[in-house]
From TrEMBL:
Gene3D superfamilies: 2.40.30.170, 2.40.420.20, 2.40.50.100, Helix hairpin bin. Residues 429-476 form the Multidrug resistance protein MdtA-like C-terminal permuted SH3 domain. This is Efflux RND transporter periplasmic adaptor subunit. Pfam families: Beta-barrel_RND_2, BSH_RND, RND-MFP_C. The keyword Coiled coil applies. Its main location: other. It comes from Methyloligella solikamskensis. Residues 339-351 have a biased composition (Low complexity).
Length: 483
């Protein structure tokens, strides 16, 4: 029985190898393919962030003094107006008593000055009567002019005394206002000995104990931190500048925390803050994510492992992303099928880069066949000349070869196209970047290119929006057979 199972496993492995490796005995090449499949694809940006309450309030004291009592502890729920703690109030109560006494004294002084006004008014009445009598006596010749002059002076002095008395009343009244304001200030300070919660929430930080001295100078010391509502939390996630362009407000988010490694929490992107953070030449942007926390599992300060879903398509055609990176190179170029169209396009050379450039020129620009032919010949000559000038450089890496091909192509196009045509070509490439691609099929022992329109991509697969049907095998790799 065991031997039968081993043989069955060998047959399955052999069958799988036959499925993925084709053409080994036909032309000396091994061609690895994979089928295009229908499935779901999900593009996501991964990062980390810190769980924080939506609103937190730091509560301090505007007064200096010793803490006399504390009424709350960590995690206590409080209502707006609840007393959290109180500063020992005796000094402030004494100040209030002093200011109340000062107000009483000031009001008594107002009454005293009012009496002085009444006295001055009475003296003025007497002075007016004396003046009238003196005038009549002088008119009759029964009194001297000096007596009249004295009566005039006494009347003027009485008027002045009345004005002074009235001014003293106004001064005393102003003093009352001043003392009352000082009393109000003392009463406000006494009320501030009660440290109250400004919001409904939960105490998440307590930085003071009974008997501790609070020193309020230029800044209020922090005594408590209250989170307004922990049934809703937010995550402040840092997203790299290379990925921030994919993230938009409203994107779906899933995240986990180390406390519950097997549970996933949902959320959404609420805000993208434009202020960048530059740390050791790494630029990131803060993304605010909101999430429900009705069960209270998410606690402030937890580290969240975040996945921001920037695109999601269901039941679409996908191919391995490796297939889009494949290009026939070296000896494998011999497998490229020369169709009627490509045979005329590549009379000056069969390099896939040249073929791709010709296809792009036809797509992006309205050029005559004569100009296309001239550009094709110029490309072939440039590629041939460049290869002859660099015979001893060895085999370049994939990135180096791609960059060389790009420079060769650009050298030719700048001489063959006008400035406006070259600009349109570059613009067409930029617009097509990330949307167009080429996969290769293996048909009848030949490699056949297939242009496709691309959609979303995840870590392994890429969506094909048009140009390819599910079930079609695409080439991933070609190598010369070892046999």
């Amino acid at each position: 029985m065991r031997l039968a199972l081993i043989l069955l496993a060998i047959l399955i492995a052999g069958g799988g190898g036959y499925y993925y490796w084709q053409g080994q005995s036909q032309n000396g090449f091994e061609v690895q393919t994979a089928p295009a499949k229908r499935g779901d694809i999900r593009r996501a940006v991964s990062t980390t962030g810190t769980v924080t309450p939506l609103v937190t309030v730091n509560i301090g004291s505007q007064l200096s003094g010793n803490i006399g009592s504390i009424n709350v502890d960590y995690s206590d729920k409080v209502k707006a107006g609840d007393v959290l703690a109180r500063i020992e109030p005796s000094t402030f109560e004494t100040k209030v008593k002093e200011e109340r006494a000062a107000v009483a004294i000031a009001k008594a002084n107002v009454a005293l000055q009012g009496a002085e006004v009444e006295k001055a008014e009475a003296n003025l009445i007497k002075a007016n009567l004396d003046l009238d009598r003196a005038k009549k006596l002088v008119e009759r010749g029964a009194s001297s002019q000096a007596t009249l002059d004295e009566a005039v002076a006494a009347q003027a002095a009485a008027e002045a005394d009345l004005a002074i008395a009235k001014a003293n009343v106004e001064n005393a009244s102003a003093t009352v206002d001043q003392k009352e304001a000082t009393l109000e200030n003392a009463e406000v300070d006494l009320a501030r000995t009660y440290i109250r919660s400004p919001i409904d929430g939960v105490v998440i930080e307590k930085a003071v104990e009974v008997g501790q001295t609070v020193a309020a100078s230029f800044t209020a010391p922090e005594l408590f931190i209250i989170a307004q509502d922990l049934s809703q939390v937010q995550i402040e996630a840092e997203v790299d500048e290379a990925d921030i362009g994919q993230v938009t407000a409203g994107d779906t988010v899933s995240f986990s925390v180390d406390a519950y490694p097997f549970e996933t929490f949902p959320g959404k992107v609420d805000q993208i803050r434009l202020a960048p953070t530059d740390l050791e030449n790494v630029v990131t942007y803060t993304v605010i994510i909101t999430a429900a926390n009705r069960e209270g599992k998410l606690l402030p300060g937890m580290t969240a492992n975040v996945s921001i879903v920037t695109g999601e398509h269901d039941d679409v055609v996908t191919v391995p992303s490796q297939a889009l990176r494949f290009e026939p190179r070296g000896a494998a170029e011999a497998l490229v099928q020369q169709s009627d169209d490509t045979s005329t396009e590549t009379s000056g050379g069969s390099d896939p880069e040249q073929q791709k450039t010709i296809r792009q020129l036809k797509e992006y620009l309205d050029l005559s066949e004569e100009r296309i032919a001239r550009i094709r010949d110029a490309l072939a000559a440039e590629f041939e000349r460049s290869s002859e000038e660099q015979p001893g450089l060895g085999v370049p890496s994939r990135g180096e070869e791609d960059e060389r091909n790009r420079l060769r192509r650009n050298n030719v196009l700048r001489t063959q196209l006008s400035a406006e045509e070259y600009r349109q070509f570059e613009m067409g490439q930029r617009q097509a970047h990330g949307r167009r691609g080429t996969v290769w099929l293996y048909e009848n022992g030949k490699l056949v290119p297939r242009d496709v329109r691309l959609g979303l991509a995840d870590a392994t697969d890429t969506e094909v929006q048009e140009g390819l049907e599910a079930g079609t095998d695409v080439v991933i790799r070609v190598r010369e057979s070892s046999e």
